């Protein structure tokens, strides 16, 4: 019997995105395969509410990142996640609370510009613009503070 030598990425037919940023590696790799030990309490809540853990984690990520998909009716949840993020002190070594809130507002504004029922050509153009604007937006905020 021949041993399968294809990588996990090839096996799952996941297209590796082009690395647009040098820092997209290690802890900041874009495509990750995580193995987590989920606390029983988390699993109990998920099972009681009939929400698969993957869906809950994916929703958390989409809401916190102000993604363009699944936006409807999530403004309140997004605001609470921003509050959660700030309460934990994430980013406070570099930015004020006001700046962090502005960062999230700007990300949300970018996500709101998605043409929900647009034609494929418009969606492609918007995706290209969004990617370029994300790069501009990231550099703007990254350069505001002196880093090691």
Secondary structure elements and pairings:
Elements: H1 8-11, H2 40-49, H3 53-64, H4 75-87, H5 97-112, H6 120-142
Q: How large, in whole angstroms, is the Cα Rg? A: 18 Å
Helical percentage? 40-55%
Instruction: Tell me the β content.
Output: under 5%
Number of strands: 0
Q: Which stretches are low in confidence, meaning pLDDT under 50 for 5 or more residues running? A: 1-5, 7-11
What is the count of helical runs? 6
SSE order in H/E notation? HHHHHH
Principal-axis shape: globular
What is the residue-averaged pLDDT?
Answer: 85
Largest sheet properties: none
* Distance linking N and C termini: 52 Å
- How does the helix and strand content classify structurally? mainly alpha
Q: Brief overview, please?
A:
The chain has six helices and no strands. The protein is mainly α. It has a domain at 65-142.
């Amino acid at each position: 019997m021949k041993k399968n030598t294809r990588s996990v990425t090839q096996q799952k037919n996941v297209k590796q995105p082009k690395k647009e940023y040098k820092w997209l590696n290690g802890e900041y790799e874009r495509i990750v395969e995580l193995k987590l030990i989920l606390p029983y309490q988390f699993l109990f809540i998920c099972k009681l509410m009939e929400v698969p853990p993957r869906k809950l984690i994916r929703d958390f990520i989409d809401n916190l990142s102000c993604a363009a998909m699944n936006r409807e009716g999530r403004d309140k949840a997004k605001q609470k996640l921003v509050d959660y993020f700030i309460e934990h002190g994430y980013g406070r070594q570099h930015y004020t609370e006001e700046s962090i809130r502005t960062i999230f507002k700007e990300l949300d504004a970018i996500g709101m510009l998605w043409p929900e029922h647009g034609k494929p050509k418009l969606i492609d153009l918007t995706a290209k613009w969004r990617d370029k604007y994300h790069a501009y937006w990231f550099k703007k905020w990254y350069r505001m503070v002196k880093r090691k």
